[in-house]
Design goal:
Distance between the termini: 30 Å
Strand order of the largest sheet: 4-3-5-6-7
Mean pLDDT: 97
Structural class: alpha/beta
Helix content: 40-55%
Strand content: 15-25%
Order of helices and strands: HHEEHHEHEHEHEHEHHHEHEEHEHEH
Largest sheet: 5 strands, parallel
Bound molecules: 6-O-phosphono-alpha-D-glucopyranose
Number of helices: 15
Radius of gyration: 20 Å
Length: 369
């Protein structure tokens, strides 16, 4: 097992550090940035199913569901296709309105999650075209879907999903960009720019990983908190949910993710000097609004940890700590902002002496209802 961990103390840490290479493996042969081409057989062969779909429904569980939420922003923003994201366990019992004009995308690292598999069967019965985004080759979900794209992240052993999440987002981004281009919703230059920026994500993750020593200092300071709040807006709202899930799963600290603007409808009541609030405040059109949210937290003595774009000045002034990530296009920021939140949960869990790779009560793949 020590050999399999490749010199890392835990599989989770190894898998966090594997993300640059895993994402390169995900887009290899698919993303031809210089030529301005995205090539994905499962999409190319079924392109009309997607371009003529009334809507896309994404079904998944856990972290894969969060990847689906990120995809909702990308698909709607770039490809202008309406998207619904559903917990597979709710979808399967909800008598959903799905017809043969629908595309359903099932996202699953293991390809074995029982609820996701059942949701796929239901969608097929209703005549939908079902596309799988799986990591495990030949898994039940990969076999049950009409077509699909593998994430090629390599084996993920740690129960808390890390590289599966970022590679799922990579695949879904490739699909969204391809559809945006085919549907004529993106100019050539904008499309090219997105491809080039996507290609640069692995090296930007490498840079984000270098904040590790600083993140350990932050982790030490907040490891004894009873509660934590994670806030983000737009593309980074799902990242806030995922950040909170990571902390819960492996440290057993209660954490909630919220859209930053919803804070005033509830969570703000919890804020006092004991409450760390992790706020994703990267460069994007909502930046100013997130800064106002940070001011609201500060005036209630909450502890603010900002996840910011390199060179940020404004949040640095207000926050107790900032963790920087490189600059990129707004639609690609989740691939970077996720990284420090993974490391933070990891270090808090290690400091609390938790079983990081096999947290209590959790399973890597949930094959029962
Ligand atoms: C379990 C795992 C999670 C995972 C979820 C969905 O809860 O602990 O890490 O996100 O199942 O799994 P899947 O394999 O379908 O992505």
């Amino acid at each position: 097992e020590q050999i399999e961990k490749g010199g890392y103390e835990h599989f989770m840490l190894k898998e966090i550090h594997e993300q640059p290479e895993a994402i390169r493996d995900t887009y290899r042969g698919r993303l031809l940035a210089n030529e301005g081409i995205i090539r994905m057989a499962g999409i190319d062969d079924n392109i009309e199913k997607f371009t003529q779909a009334d809507k896309i429904t994404i079904v998944a569980c856990g972290t894969s569901w969060h990847a689906g939420l990120v995809a909702e922003y990308i698909f709607e923003d770039l490809a202008r296709i309406p998207v619904e994201v559903e917990y597979a366990s709710e979808f399967r019992y909800r008598n959903p309105v799905i017809t043969n004009k629908d595309v359903v995308i099932a996202i699953s690292q293991s390809g074995e999650t029982a609820d996701t598999l059942a949701a796929i069967k239901l969608a097929k019965q209703n005549g939908a075209f079902v596309f799988g985004v799986c990591n495990v080759v030949g898994s039940s979900i990969a076999r049950e879907t009409h077509a699909g794209a593998y994430t090629h992240a390599g084996p993920e052993i740690g129960v808390a999903s890390t590289k599966a999440f970022t590679t799922q987002i990579t695949v879904l981004t490739l699909i969204a960009l391809k559809l945006a281009k085919v549907k004529g919703n993106m100019s050539n230059s904008d499309f090219h720019h997105h491809l080039q920026e996507l290609e640069l994500i692995p090296e930007k993750i490498e840079k984000a990983l270098k904040a590790d020593a600083h993140i350990q200092i932050v982790a030490k300071q907040y490891k004894d908190a009873k509660n934590s709040l994670y806030l983000g807006r737009g593309y980074n709202f799902p990242v806030a949910l995922e950040g909170a899930l990571k902390l819960k799963e492996i440290s057993y600290i209660h954490a909630e993710g919220y859209p930053a603007a919803e804070m005033k409808h509830g969570p703000i009541a919890l804020i006092d000097e004991q409450m760390p609030v992790y706020v994703i405040a990267v460069n994007n059109p909502h930046y100013g609004k997130v800064v106002s949210n940070i001011e609201e937290i500060k005036s209630r003595s909450g502890k603010i940890i900002g996840i910011v774009t390199e060179g940020d000045e404004e949040v640095k002034e207000l926050a107790d700590h900032v963790i920087e990530v490189p600059n990129t296009l707004e639609s690609l920021t989740p691939l970077l902002t996720t990284i420090p939140l993974q490391l933070l949960s990891y270090h808090i869990a290690v400091m609390l002496d938790r079983n990081v790779d096999q947290p209590r009560n959790l399973a890597k793949s949930v094959t029962v209802e």
